[in-house]
Amino acid sequence: MNKKAVSMLSVLAVAALILSGIPMAASESEADSSDEYYGTILGLSLDDIDEVIKSIFHKSIEEIIERYASEYGYQLKLVPDFQSKTAVTRTISTENGLKYITDRVTGYFVVTADIDSTGKFPAAGTYTVNDGEAVEDFLKRVFVDNVSSTERHVDYTLLAGITLDIGLITEIDTKTGEVKRAYLALLPLLYIEGNGNVEISVETDSTGEELKSLTIAYGDKGFKENVYTDLQMEFDVEGLKLIGDSVWQSTPTVTMKVITSIVSTDLIQELWPFVSEAIDKSGKMSAAIPELLKKILTSTDKKLDVRGTIESLTGSKIPDMMFKADMTITNYQDLSGNEYAGIEVQRPGEPVSIDYSLGNYSVDIYEIMENLPDDVISPSTKLLVGLALGILGWDTMELADVSGDQKAQKEISEIQTEVNNINIENEKYETNIPTEYIAIAIAVIVISCLVAVLMWRGRI
Amino acid sequence: MSMTPFERDRAIGMWGLALCMLAVAAGWMLMRFGISWSIADLPESEHMIRIIPAYIISEVAVIPLGAKLADLMGVKRVLLFGPIIFILSSILCIISVNAEMLIAFRFIQGIGGGILLGMIFTAVGRYYEPDKRNKCHELMTASFAIGSLFASAAGYFLTDTFNWRAGFVLLAVMMLIGTIIAWRLLPEDEGSNERPDRLNLILVTLLFGVAAYYTQSVNVDYALLSVPSILVVAVIIVLLVLTMWNSKRSSNPTIPVGISGFEKKLIILMFLFSMCGLGLIQYYFKLYLTFYEFDIYSASFNFMILILGAAAPSIIGCKLVMKTGVMPWVTVGAVFVTISLLMTHFLIDQGTEYFALCLFVFGFGLGMIVTEIIISMQGITAKKDLGQHTGNLMAVRMIGILVGNAVVGAYIKEVVNANYVPTIIDISTADSLIGSMASTFGDNFKYTSQALDMGFTTTALIMAVVTAILVVIAYTLRKYDLENRQE
């Protein structure tokens, strides 16, 4: 993803954050309502993916990979599976003159692949890339030219998953229509797990870009790695309120306060080159904090409280961050009478326009994408993404009123529970004390008691 | 000069106590570096920051108790339970499954540590004649310094290499070995076997405990000028008055009463030098990490320079203090501490070589002060009252260190809050939002680092003025300790 795309997504995220309170503020004249609950479930299966891939490449995933393997002289059987479900919900409640809108997006995307292959594989060992050798030539040298004479059977199961749990609570003063505060919790998780009778490990240079060597080992192998983040932020909002039927005071200043910033860093060594590059290219952070973040992040593979660590080192709190934006918001109705807030955020170059439905919680994702400037997403990419969205049926997202729909609520709850369970499994808590420390503890207690008795009796 | 078997055993026994002292001092600082990072495998807890204070508060509270018990029961009987409390609580720390358990066990560990800290310095006085205490006191002070200064790096290494639990295993094993050596080789030491004044013991423990609690909670749980802060200070004052009143009426008080002007000056000097000296060390450490290089081992290496600076004057000072009196040493030491604090103000941010030089001179000055004061105080104290005087002095010293920490911390916080001008990221003009956020975060961190530098160097200047005044107070000590020596 290029820098502009990342930047634009961030703008959209902040804009969405600020504006998530608009529908509620817009209806502030309504009497205090009881809790409202809207939701929808988005599902994606392997067939859906296959359909998209087939429409682009005219081949299924299995066919593509099996054909690629046959070029290297291997018979390969791939059994992929893909499961994805996402629940999008909004609950609205009113308490003491304050309206709380809680938006939550909870989803998981899990890919499993059973790979079963027979062929003449390279012998176990480390293979080093020669000076000036292209990666493709190197792989051919290892997997085609350098194979052993005996045939080998290799099977491997790969499990990769992403979970996403985003919660946003927006607080609105129902009397003034003012968006007061927002609380954002982001819990993305990426995990990879592999088990089989082969292990291929790759060594790259310090930038992580250039392949240096490849090590192949046989026998029962397995690994599990993840990146877990728990980021919770509070935003104090000023200057965002409805001052007429359709007119907004939209000069928002947002103060961002980091509440929690936990990172589990199994994969940080692998990911650091990309993080570092992103930071170096887009800011001067690395110059201002010589080695600090890298040192703390790469110093452990455990769950790390970044903010807590920095603050305990400096003895000072890291100051909060503030944002402002030049934007205009005008409410309007389309031909069908649906009410929208037309939001235009000024940006260097072209402004970003978002039409936000006020009548219900619905988002026309396709239209938002279409409105993005061409220099952020090229027309061909737009076409491709638009096609995929159309096939998947994700071009428009509507949240139905599920307040009385027990079945829908149960399904939503199941998805949220599933994501919670995966997150808990991948959190790096070790509430089970390592066995060796239990043994040491018992040994020290026994010896201490023995020594104390002997001292008491005057034996030593 | 060859030693008799008795002297040899006694000396080796003292090495055992020094090992215990190393464990006690290391227990204080073991988890100082990045607590959140250290115990990252435990569930998140808002109480995580209490892990260090839990140990400090209980440790400081019972220092006078440990010293008094050494007077009443003799050193070896205190060795029967002080180390056991420390070892068992260390083991309980190892099997903690959440921060709350760890905090509770650290509190108990601090009780064991505090009893030993008070007892060990008293033991030196009880086992050695006044003119032969110097080497042992140097050994104990060096153990305390090494344990305190290098525990952060050791804790970092152990956590990074094994697990945070490994540090507690090390503490327990060190304590066990030290205790066995000390128990096996130290001669019998009969205490006075008098009945302790329990109410007085409780009052003294509460007084030092609440004072230590205040240093750990002010600017963390409440502001310096706030109602809770004033309430806690009021409680301390009430406890102080009650303790003094009760001690004057007690037949066997835990802290000394009716002491001479010389002793009062020594106590004041110990408090203020600890505040202006050892209380600042943590900020030298933080400054190095944030201002120069985030390398905990390099930062710790600077403490080696500080100890090197302190070694020569300490060895000579402790050897001669019983002949010259404490006045010349503390006076000259105070001059060097003042110079080092001025150097800190002007030079510390000019380069790592200047940073090291500041610490060397700082150590050079402190080397002439701390141990010499203990030796001098014990020199004018009757053997039966050594614990009473030593425990009080050690507790005052610890409170001084904690106050120094708190004062610098509070001032730096003020500097940060007063001078910070927030950067507002304008989404409409920023070329790259991520870039602007990264840049602002970097600037904020740089600002924090500079505020730490500015706050610390300004505090160092204020402390230099205080130590300059201490030069005068030290000069007025004259030769009281030579003229009033207790054999």
Protein described:
- The complex is a heterodimer of chains A (460) and B (487).
- Chain A is α+β, with helices and mostly antiparallel strands.
- Chain A has helices at residues 3-19, 22-26, 46-57, 61-71, 135-145, 268-282, 285-288, 292-298, 306-314, 365-371, 379-392, 406-426, 435-456, and strands at residues 36-45, 75-95, 98-119, 125-128, 152-173, 178-204, 211-242, 248-265, 303-305, 321-324, 327-333, 339-345, 352-357, 362-364, 396-398, 400-401.
- In chain A, helix 3 (46-57) runs antiparallel to helix 11 (379-392).
- The model of chain B has no long low-confidence stretch (mean pLDDT 90).
- Chain B has helices at 5-29, 35-38, 51-73, 75-94, 99-127, 134-161, 164-185, 198-217, 227-249, 261-292, 296-324, 327-347, 352-366, 370-379, 386-419, 433-475, 480-483; one strand spanning 424-426.
- By secondary structure, chain B is mainly alpha-helical.
- In chain B, 78% of the residues lie in helices and 1% in strands.
- Classes of the chains: A alpha+beta (460), B mainly alpha (487).
- Chains A and B meet through helix 1, strand 8, helix 6, helix 7 and helix 8 of A and helix 2, helix 4, helix 7, helix 10 and helix 15 of B.
- Strand 10 (321-324) of chain A pairs parallel with strand 1 (424-426) of chain B, so a sheet runs across the interface.
